[in-house]
Amino acid sequence: MSENQVSAPIAAEPKPAGEEIVRVVDVQRIYPLGHDKVTALKGINLSVHLGELVGLMGRSGSGKTTLLNIIVGLDQATSGKVFIKGTDVTQLSDATLTELRRRLIGYVFQSFALIPVLSAVENVELPMHIAGVPRAERHRRAVELLQLVGLGKRMHHRPFELSGGEQQRVAIARALSNRPSLILADEPTGELDSTTGLQIMSLFRYIATSENVAVIIVTHDPTIMQIAHRTFEISDGVVNQIANPVPVS
Ligand SMILES: Nc1ncnc2c1ncn2[C@@H]1O[C@H](COP(=O)(O)OP(=O)(O)OP(=O)(O)O)[C@@H](O)[C@H]1O
Ligand SMILES: [Mg+2]
Q1: Pocket residues for ligand 1 (CB within 6 Å)?
Q2: What is the 119 CA–ligand 1 centroid distance (Å)?
Q3: Confidence tier at 10 by pLDDT (50, 70, 90)
Q4: Strand boundaries in 104-164, DSSP class E
Q5: What DSSP designation does 220 have?
Q6: pTM (2 decimals)?
Q7: Ligand 1 atom closest to residue 32's alpha carbon, by position in its atom list
Q8: Residue of minimum CA distance from atom 8 in ligand 1
Q9: Contact (CB, 8 A) for 71 and 41
Q10: Bridge partners, residue 134, by sequence
């Protein structure tokens, strides 16, 4: 994909959804608050498949981040279950959970969270370095991923030499480095202007399809409804689908 060509074409022919990668069953999250309690999630049911981009909307405080944190195992559901590739993550030890997260999940942050002293290619290589991937192989994959996100010509730039949209593309390439099955992105376009935000959302869609990854994007931007294969809203602690499904291409 070239630098300027980031919109994913909408396929005319729907194809069956891929393997189920996430299944959230009756998840409830209640936070104790002094003598009171906050019910962040009342009963969430959701399933996400490989190759699809899912949008998650909802007003501030509706529980979007809480749900992502529960899926990734950084927070614990009060009740209910979360299956990642068929494994119930609510039952795993911390060590097993960390390993599963490293192997299956990539995370993209609103603030990009790149290491400022490392170049784009070094930032993308870092998780593979930590995972023990040999030097030549991790460099080859990092270059390939930067080309995939349209940054082939910027790979030796450091974050401060890149625009916000370019930095987010580096972060997306980094999230893909360990070949995850699932990418979670919490407000990934929150610090970008609307045109750049749209390009980043389109890039996520392109990646979901071309890399056969499931992507969940939390956003306040209603444009997601035109880009995601399915969009949900969290309201009053439950999720409802709010946009017509776009066929998985
Ligand atoms: N650790 C915590 N302890 C107590 N209450 C919490 C905790 N984390 C979140 N909450 C509460 O749970 C609710 C959901 O919070 P959450 O951060 O998931 O919202 P959100 O949809 O991500 O909001 P935003 O769009 O502002 O990021 C809020 O009422 C919040 O105050
Ligand atoms: Mg949030």
Answers
A1: 31, 33, 38, 40, 58, 60-66
A2: 34
A3: very low
A4: 105-108
A5: S
A6: 0.90
A7: 4
A8: 66
A9: no
A10: none
